[in-house]
Amino acid sequence: MLLLLWAPIALPLYSVVKDSNTVNIVRLLVLYVEFILLVRLWGRWVYRQSNLLWVYGLEFSRRFGLELLAGLLIGLFSLLALFVTQGSFGWLVWQMPTIALLRVILEGLLVALGIGFAEELLFRGWLLDELQRDYRANVVLWADATVFALVHGFRPQFPALLLLGLTLVWAKRSRWDTAVGPRDGNQRRDRLGLPMGLHAGLVWGYYIVNVGQLVSYSQQVPLWITGFDRNPLAGAMGLLFLSALLIGMWQFASNVRVAGRS
User: Fold this and answer.
1) Cβ neighbours of 231 (radius 10 Å)
2) CA gyration radius, the chain
3) Does residue 166 contact residue 38 with C-beta atoms inside 8 Å?
């Protein structure tokens, strides 16, 4: 349904708009607007739930905003810490930016929030909810993370994407309420604020450093250590940092759920 509605609008853009970046942005905007509209209809027609986006964990509240901000800062400083660690080993050299850094920071924030919102609504919202309706928690965890990694392509970054997917599922599970939704009754639900923020923070840090041209690699160690394609998360050091982040989110989620049962 999504493809049938999206293709007649998106495909003609290639012949109308010459700038490829503009085409990609418009295509994604159209795709996600249609996705959100279809999700609302899917909830009403299939599950008899009037606000499926709320069930996914998308809301506009103070608590959601605080979790979004917390995730954004955790992701940003985690990635910057990875760059700083590699720099302390002499694997990369910090350099002065050749373009306006403030502009890069603001652009990166907007891009990161857009990616965090779109991908988390899809993978930790719709997909996770569909899986949770039929499968056990561990199956859901690995299935969601694997699909997330595969959709981004089977490349050297696959292990990093798999770890990131696992981390974001645990981030989603680390906050939950038993609350009353609009005509949906009482049900347990996880919010999307923390995974959206965490995902956006990692993208933001990567955008600032790479687009701002803040580092150059010294080639003292092979790429499998520092990261393929200038992506620090796609190397051995990045996997260590992601593993630490995964353990932290898993431990946090476990503590929250133990406290919730007591």
Assistant:
1) 17
2) 20
3) no
199-255 per-position pLDDT tens digit: 999 999 999 999 999 999 988 999 999 998 888 999 999 999 999 999 999 998 887
Tokens at residue 202, please? 């990692």
Phi, psi of 190 (to 5 degrees): -110, 140
Gap between the Cα atoms of 110 and 156, Å rounded? 27
> For residue 219, which amino acid is it?
Q
Four-point Cα dihedral 250, 255, 257, 258, nearest 10? 140
Among candidate residues 146, 134, 249, 260, the one with its CA nearest the CA of residue 195: 249
Bridge-based pairing of strands 185-190 and 92-94 is unpaired
| DSSP output for 12-55 | THHHH---HHHHHHHHHHHHHHHHHHHHHHHIIIII--S-HHHH
- Asked if 216 and 226 touch (Cβ cutoff 8 Å), the reply is no
Is-contact 52 43, C-beta < 8 A?
A: yes
Global pTM value: 0.89
The pLDDT tens digits of the residues spanning 63-89 come to: 999 999 999 999 999 999 999 999 999
CA–CA dist 55, 113 (Å, integer) = 21
**CB–CB of 67/193 below 8 Å?**
yes
Token pair for 74: 């955790």
The 10s digit of each residue's pLDDT in 49-61 is 888 999 999 998 9
